[in-house]
Specification:
The chain has 4 helices and no strands. The protein is mainly alpha-helical. The chain has one domain. Helix 1 runs antiparallel to helix 2 and helix 2 packs across helix 4.
Amino acid sequence: MCSQRVYLLKLLRDQGLPRPQLNIVFDALVLSKLLYAVPVWSGFMSVELTGQVNSFLKRAFTCGYCRKLYTIVAIADDADMD
């Protein structure tokens, strides 16, 4: 599922969608799923899974899909605050 979303973001970027709009699409398609799931499974995440998610988020940032570099720990902390 995640690879399909990244592929869509890549297509939109290649079609010339400006970066601010790409960020909106990233927030709607990817970040919203993480924010929905993180309260349930954040306590059970292994170091390996945390690294994989952080690697994905870093790759999304370097590709220009999001305007800030997210980490799963920061997302979990933000979810705990709400």
